[in-house]
Amino acid sequence: MRYISKEINGLLGEEKRMAFIAGPRQVGKTTLARHLLTESNAARWYFSWDIPEHRKVMTQRPTDFWLTEGIPEQGTSPRICLDEIHKHPRWKNFLKGLFDAWEKEVEIIVTGSGRLDIYKRGGDSLFGRYSMYHLYPFTVAELLLPDRLAILPPDDFFQRGMTSDWTMEKEEALRLIDKFSGFPEPLFAAEELRVNRWRREHETLLLREDVRDLTHVRDLGSLEALGVLLRERIGSPLSLNALAEDISVTHVSVRNWIDLLRRIFYLFELKPWVGALARSLKKSSKVYLFDHSSISNEGARFENLMALHLHTYCTAWTDFGYGDFSLHYVRDRGGKRMDFLVTKGRKPYALIETKLSAANLDRALLYFKERLRPRYTFQITREKGKKDIPIMESGIVLTSAAGFLGSILQRS
């Protein structure tokens, strides 16, 4: 079970809407969908547009194709999964017809990559018929809990993070994700040679096959060069002009390619916070990768790991209905900066600074805390054994990365 499983079961059973699952390639969307079918005794109702036999029957019988695999028992609500259905040339009309025909009788799961998000932004003929959930790589908390249901409500998460101790178990979970990423195949293989092979194949799949399917980008070599350069700039505000100069393309091309890499879940962007903070900068996003294991610099890799965890939580809290959460970084014109600011309803909620090692409180964190007045403020260190027990100083929690990310284990 993954962290969105409970929410999807609730949506299908109570709200009678379709569940869309979007996320990076090879993150486990199909595995999760098959599990959700199996627990409902519906494994036979898995259909993929990539399987010729399935594609044929869906084309010939667009509203009742699933009945070819057997009629459900009387009194039960059959559950079906449609994988890669966005490749159907008229997939939205296909889903609308299927849902309208069987709205009260069939539970529908739809899985896909960033295309589901892309088309969601346009005129949406499916409005009111589905909810979107995002599945991202495994978190430290998911590795620590057998049932994998590891997304706490936001207040519970941060309150437990204020008191959660460092343990060897939490440290080992953090080490595994740091080294092998949170993608299931390399993470559970935990073999360096295998993760290296997987990373090359995964990047080829994204930068060539997904890009080819989504756009008409022809200069794939320059796009791949951009991917290499971005790994070297993790944690720093991007200069699009500098990137364009480095790979000899236009500023517009770099901006468009970064947008494309975001849509295919190669990376995600953090915008600078531009709220009430005086003298704040209003440009230059930072980017982080969904596969941070390819980042050689230890400090940048740790910052990326923390960014991905916080991005996962913010996305899940928004998907689950806890509010409108987003992740930013903070920087003013005087040069002071903070790694992360979680906002709720566009207001500061949690301010977080990360460090590989730090014996003392970062004074800039106190500066931003006094001006932004978030509900929670943390300084989180990576170094093993540092801040084994969280301490409070000037209203700021100083704690370890393993303790903070493993805070899900603490029971009330």
How would you characterize the overall build of this protein?
- This protein is α/β, with parallel strands linked by helices and 412 residues long.
- The protein has 2 domains: 5-134, P-loop containing nucleotide triphosphate hydrolases (Rossmann fold, 3-Layer(aba) Sandwich); 140-409, no CATH class.
- It contains 16 helices and 13 strands.
- It has an 8-stranded mixed beta sheet with strand order 7-6-8-9-10-11-13-12, with helices on both faces. It has a 5-stranded parallel beta sheet with strand order 2-3-4-1-5.
- Helix 12 crosses helix 13.
- The chain is globular and about 65 Å long.
SSE inventory with pairings:
Layout: H1 5-15, E1 18-22, H2 29-38, E2 46-48, H3 52-60, E3 79-83, H4 91-102, E4 107-112, H5 115-120, E5 130-134, H6 140-144, H7 154-161, H8 168-180, H9 184-189, H10 192-214, H11 220-231, H12 240-247, H13 251-263, E6 267-272, E7 286-289, H14 298-320, E8 325-331, E9 337-344, E10 347-355, H15 363-372, E11 376-381, E12 391-393, E13 396-400, H16 401-405
Parallel strand pairs: 1-4, 1-5, 2-3, 3-4, 6-8, 10-11, 11-13
Antiparallel strand pairs: 6-7, 8-9, 9-10, 12-13
Helix pairs in contact: 12-13
From the alpha-carbon coordinates, what is the Rg to the nearest angstrom? Answer: 22 Å
What level of helicity do the residues show? 40-55%
Our count of helices gives 16
Low-pLDDT regions = none
Q: Can you list the strand order of the major beta sheet?
A: 7-6-8-9-10-11-13-12
Q: What's the domain count?
A: 2
The assigned structural class equals alpha/beta
Strand content: 15-25%
Q: Count all strands and give the number.
A: 13
Distance between the termini: 23 Å
Mean pLDDT: 88
